[in-house]
Amino acid sequence: MVDGVLDEPEWRNAALLTGFSQFFPNDDVAAQDSTEVLVWYSSTALHVGLRAHAAPGTVRATLADRDRITQDDNVQLFLGTYNDSRQALVFAVNPFGIQSDGVLTETGAATGGGVFGSTTTRAREATDLAPDYVWRSKGRLTPYGYEVEIVIPFKSLRYRNADVHTWQLNVVRTVQVSGHEQTWTPAKRASASFLAQSGTLAGLRDLQRGVTVDLIPTITSSTFGSAGAASRWSYNAERPEIGGSARWGITSNLTLSGTANPDFSQVEADATQFSPDPRIAVFFAERRPFFLESQEQFTVPNRLIYTRRISQPVFATKLTGKQRGFDIGVLAAADRRETSANGQDMPLFGIVRLQRDLGKQSRVGMVYTDRSEGGSWNRVIGVDGRLVRGVYSVQAQAARSFTRTAAGTTAAPLWDLSGVRNGRAFYARYVLNGISRNFDAQSGFIARPGIANLSATHRWNFFGANGALVEVFSPEVYMLGRFQYADFVNRRPAQDAQLHLRTNTRLRGGWQIGAQWLREEFGFDRDLYTNYRLLQPGAGGRVDTVAYTGTPRLPNFDWVTSVGTPEFKRFSAQTVYVWGQDENFPEWSSADVAILNQSLTLRPTEQLRVSGTWAYETFRRKTDGSLVLSRNTPRLRAEYQVNRQIFVRVIGEHSVVKQDSLRDDSRTELPVYLRQADGTLRRAAAFRRTRARLDVLFSYLPSPGTVVYVGYGDQLRADEPGGSRTLRRSADVFFAKVSYLFRLQ
User: Would you say residue 510 has pLDDT above 80?
Assistant: First the structure.
């Protein structure tokens, strides 16, 4: 029985892990808090006990939903069952034993930086919390701190077939009162790999998984409401849909799974996002359980695999695991006919991702994706690799797309090369990449094709003495040259140039302060304004229709400040404010910009959590100070955790976008006309678009795979001109989902 009390006889004979040291914000410093980790294993499970010592009244702990414990004190287990220093399963608990889990796959991804990035930089990559595993945990507060008991069944793990096993293990403890991270092994910041600095669990024998077969039948039901004739509201109740998934552990490290009519899983709508550059597509993460499972096996640079492209799958199957040094990911799926271009052909997807270990930490991989629809198809094939030596790592990728349509077949390249020095006092990153305008990845996500980038980042870290007011001070220089792909290939000048000077400071107690100065220059992009037209008066009363010709180059000067509070017991907050001169993209002229991103989380009780975000942007013309564009999006999320299995959630969002009538600002001042699909011209008139939504969800989730969801979603809109001036309901939905995990023993 898992009760959170470590008083069974087995704990007295367990291996004892102590001697934690600080890792973040500074390494090579003895931990201020004492932590004891007890480890033993039975034939069917790994057992871990945690005793975390803390000063009275300093432990942060709440009842929370799964994977939402980052604002609590927590302990994370990094379990590398393949002992390859590249990938580890992560099992985390807060003081009450609330679970968070996922996988850390080290890819050399950049950390820190960016206008809206974190104000400080951690020395390891983030854990992907998408996967959920079946395991047990329970914890309790004690006079000396807290105590947690964890049981991880071997059925929930993947590992090599062997008589004797050696697994990597590290334990990270986060102490919110100080904001420090402490590790069991004395991990150093000056390393290209955090996982390579793990300890080991050696001599594991006689591990028994038994038959590993999971069946998850699912029933979903939805009722959609909309305005019918004479604006009368009506509902269309769909018949309950039966689906489900199955998972078979062929071996201890190879899994075959399939799904039919996978559930909607969108129990939380995607938050509204706006791209600062209209040429860059907005990315939304995958949420569906079937595609999230073993998602790390399909990780590839430049997102050449993006499973949300399979929008309404009828069925899908995949094979994942590790065999003879190869990481294997194979996925096949069929989408509904209505998702095709003609509404008649069923889109078919085939995806293969293979990776091979090289040495202790390096690897090489290949990817192949295929999407076919009738007589048309799109295929992408690529290779990539990462070489790691000490604090240095190099990553490279080359891919080519092949697309066939009725107009013929096209092919186009993508390439990427980056080098990183991840030193303790000095960090450097250099990137050169390019994506042809015709590169097409219909099974992936390409934010912006047709460009090449050359960038360099240099960051210095200065550490204060133990207990000093300033724990880390990190100045940074970022430089970027962005080219049109054809210009780069033909050695023509860059279209855009950026120089960012940044400073990030972490203070004692967890306060974070950042400041940036941005000097940029953007070149006119004709492709963005191909449908813009001006009506130019000519001689004799003639009016000529002329193309839009913008100012060749726009200079930018921006300032950024950011402040983040520690994780206080009852609240935490972060603010990012940007102001200065930036692009007025709707008219391609300079604008005075003000951008505010604010987040606030309140924890008034152990069971109630209220979090809010507010994104506010204004762009005013430099010529006369008039408002050309504004966006205002507050979002509020409230959760009440009745107990560990049951919670109620309410999300509300309100978004207003206002745009003035467009003109050829700072040049001819003529009004802008937009060419429509039928060739006619329409004035780019002022508009105001308001969107709002309310989502309510009741959730019972005793374990991954077994869930009951009952919810309601309401959408409202107002459009000026041409629509209602006040918010009116445009659609709503009642939905329910029931699924149950049958795990065959």
Answer: yes
CA count, 13 A, side-chain hemisphere, 413: 11
CA-wise closest residue to 434 among 454, 446, 418, 451: 451
Separation between Cα atoms, residue 124 and residue 112, nearest integer Å: 10
Q: CA 181, 185, 190, 192: dihedral to nearest 10 degrees?
A: -100
Domain identity same for 50 and 195 = yes
**Per-residue pLDDT averaged across 7-22, rounded?**
94
Buried b (16+ CB within 10 A) or exposed e, 725-745: eeeeebebbebebbbbbebee
Q: Is the pLDDT of residue 119 over 50?
A: no
Residues 21-70: tens digit of each pLDDT: 999 999 989 998 999 999 999 999 999 999 999 999 999 999 999 999 99
Secondary structure E strands in 585-626? 589-602, 608-621
Q: Are residues 666 and 716 in the same domain?
A: no
> Which token pair is 108?
């050399």
What distance separates the 2 farthest-apart alpha carbons in the chain?
A: 102
pLDDT tens-digit map of 462-483: 999 988 999 999 999 999 999 9
Is residue 540 pLDDT above 90, yes or no? no
Tell me the C-alpha distance between 18 and 427, whole Å.
31
Domain of residue 543, residue span: 524-642+652-685
Same-domain pairing of 178 and 221: no
For residue 12, give the H/E element and its range.
helix 9-12
**How many distinct structural domains can be found in the chain?**
3
CA distance 625 to 666: 12
Q: Which tens digit of pLDDT belongs to each residue from 280-331?
A: 998 988 888 899 888 989 999 999 999 999 998 999 999 999 888 899 999 9
Rounded to whole angstroms, the Cα distance separating 628 from 350 reads: 45
Tokens linked to 607: 């069971």
* 522: enclosing H helix or E strand: strand 512-523
Residue 304 CB partners (closer than 8 Å, separation 6+):
367, 369, 380, 382, 399, 414, 441, 443, 444
Q: Tokens 């996967």 appear where?
A: 131
Domain assignment present for 266: no
- As a whole number of angstroms, the distance between CA 118 and CA 512 comes to 9
Question: Which residue(s) pair with 575 in the sheet?
Answer: 563, 598
What DSSP designation does 57 have?
T
